[in-house]
Write a structure and sequence with these properties.
Keywords: Signal. By secondary structure, the protein is mostly helical. The protein has two helices and no strands. 72% of the residues lie in helices and 0% in strands.
């Protein structure tokens, strides 16, 4: 194996390692992100807070 071939082999290894590390990290994080992305179902309509009640009282005709 010549010095040039050894350098090419190391270079190829580093390219592969550089590309594989982010892919492995994404594979580990993706399932956790998918669970976190599903929000709890919020109730429909307005939440009856104090300022909403004040507005609704003032908007009556």
């Amino acid at each position: 194996m010549s010095k040039k071939d050894a350098a090419a082999t190391r270079r190829d290894f580093l390219k592969l390692a550089g590309a594989a590390a982010p892919a492995a990290a994404a594979a580990v994080v993706a399932p956790a992100a998918a669970k976190a992305a599903a929000p709890a179902k919020a109730p429909a309509g307005l939440r009856r807070t104090e300022h909403v009640e004040k507005y609704l009282r003032s908007a009556r005709f």
